[in-house]
Design a protein that fits this description.
It is a single chain. This protein is mostly helical. The chain has helices spanning 3-16, 26-36, 40-72, 77-125, 129-134, 137-172, 175-178. α4 runs antiparallel to α6. The chain starts with a helix and ends in a 17-residue tail after the last helix.
């Protein structure tokens, strides 16, 4: 088998390999908490931005529905214009919240990488000389990099799952429970569609 075929074979098996699943122990959760603790305020802000972004994402179609109902029901132009301005405001707020959430996510991720790399390199520097004579330098550097990147991916994957989960309660909330609280809600729905 040629060297090129060996490389393609290794690449195929790497990409097609099943993801390794290990149960999280209490000690592992404590270590994760230790690395996440300095970012607690940023994580809290990220969670608030995620929930707020989810609420805004759900509010846009609801308000758009109210605008359509106003148009169909023959509402005054000022009311329909108010709904349109509210939709534009929600879109701007959603974009702003998304931008802040992405910035917070990047800051948390990069801070986590810095802390992990610092801890790993401090540990490697405390190793005895015999460790370095037995271990190949390339293998060590590759392992250090892959472990840190893997930990960051696991941490970020958990954050992104939270962002998707936070949208579910907002979108599953019955419309009748919170739409009547919106300004301009008259409570009446047009029975017929005028053409």
């Amino acid at each position: 088998m040629s060297m090129e075929m060996t490389a393609w074979h290794a690449l195929y098996h790497t990409t097609q390999a099943p993801e390794e699943r290990r149960p999280l122990s209490l000690a592992t959760l404590r270590r994760i908490g230790g690395f996440a603790r300095p970012h607690a305020a940023l994580l809290g802000s990220f969670l608030v931005c995620s929930v707020l972004g989810s609420v805004l994402a759900v509010a846009t179609p609801v308000v758009a529905g109210q605008a359509v109902d106003g148009i169909v029901g023959g509402a005054p132009i000022g009311v329909v214009g108010g709904w349109a301005l509210l939709i534009a405001g929600i879109a701007l707020a959603e974009a702003g919240v998304g931008l802040v959430a992405r910035w917070l996510s990047a800051r948390i991720g990069e801070g986590l990488i810095l802390r992990l790399r610092t801890a790993v390199f401090d540990h490697v520097q405390r190793m005895p000389i015999a460790f370095f004579t037995r271990t190949h330098t390339g293998a060590l550097v590759s392992r250090l990099n892959n472990d840190v990147i893997g930990a960051q991916r696991a941490f970020c994957r958990g954050r992104s799952r939270w962002r998707h989960w936070s949208c579910c309660p907002c979108s599953c909330c019955p419309r009748a429970a919170w739409v009547p609280a919106l300004p301009g809600w008259s409570g009446r729905r047009p029975n017929t569609i005028r053409r």
